[in-house]
Amino acid sequence: MAGAAPLRLATRGSPQARTQAHLVAEAITAATGRPTDLVLVETTGDRNQSVPLHTIGGQGVFVKEVQQAVLDGRAEAAVHSAKDLPSESPGGLWLAAFCARRDAADALVGRPLTGLATGAVVATGSVRRRAQLASVRPDLQFVELRGNIARRLEQIPDGGAIVMAVAALDVLGLTEHVAERLDPAVFVPAVGQGCVAVECRADDSATRHLLAGVDDPATRFAVSTERAFLAELGAGCTLPLGAYCVAGELHAFLAGDEPPTEFRETVTVPGDVDGAVALAAAVARRARAAVGS
Questions:
Q1: Burial status of residue 49 (CB atoms within 10 A of its CB: 0-12, 13-18, 19 or more)
Q2: What are phi and psi of 49, to 5 degrees?
Q3: What is the pLDDT of residues 113-171, one digit of tens each?
Q4: How far is CA 96 from CA 12, 21, 23, 84, 216, in A?
Q5: What residues are labeled active site?
């Protein structure tokens, strides 16, 4: 597409977000020949680093301003970590691509579970990660963790650990810091974890066509199934929940307000997206009934 104007991609300015967006940009250019530019956007989550995520709005705090850049016409598309997306896109936007997923698992950085002494401190801002770790190690103490990846790696408690997404470390070439990869069938990841999603305006058929070139059908199927679980519960980071669709199975997790009340279920997923979405919604209803959320 020689001579075409660059496709503008809105993204957060963190090193992880910029790297993800650069990779998407390179893939778009390789697939379509269209040049690209990045439009850096500061979000509510970036500005407020001192407050736990679940108290400032949970999911959406890292994406709303990026989405607005597309709606305002400052960019043709927005690049997000799929786990940051609310269960529904704002009116006027379309999830045009789910890029091929990286490892969706969580990891301990610092010490592995067996290396954590009784009462050791684990830093994480995720209520899901706290609930899952507490279910197998109720002795652990938890503290908040915010900031970009470099800042988080500086906050490993003495004798303790922090919890990170393997994919986030992988994007920046930092997987050597992983002390233990946590089994995602047990420590069920956040919905969409490990996937980069790209939104554009719903009425922008030209951009939708371009982005189709970087959409991965298997990832779209899996993340759409997980997002149906999230949508049925009507929650984001404010509830300790996880869903992970892989190899024809959906692993689902929801914790109640009073530990150790929790719901865990693994089900076989139909091969069609409508069936998978309906099943995920049914699992979410069972989860809600089980924990009373």
A1: exposed
A2: -100, 0
A3: 999 999 999 999 999 999 999 999 999 999 999 889 999 999 999 999 999 999 999 99
A4: 18, 15, 16, 16, 10
A5: 84
As given in the structure block, the two tokens for residue 256 are 């109640």
- Compute the CA torsion angle 171, 176, 180, 185 (nearest 10 deg): 30
Strands 161-165 and 262-268: unpaired
Separation CA 293–CA 185 (nearest Å):
22
pLDDT tens track for 75-85: 999 999 999 99
Q: Where are the domains of the chain?
A: 106-181
From the number of C-beta atoms within 10 Å of its C-beta (0-12, 13-18, 19+), residue 226 rates as: buried
**Which tokens hold the place of 95?**
């999830």
Neighbours of 65 (CB within 10 A): 18
Annotation: CATH topology of 106-181 = D-Maltodextrin-Binding Protein; domain 2 (3.40.190)
Three-state secondary-structure class, residue 32? helix
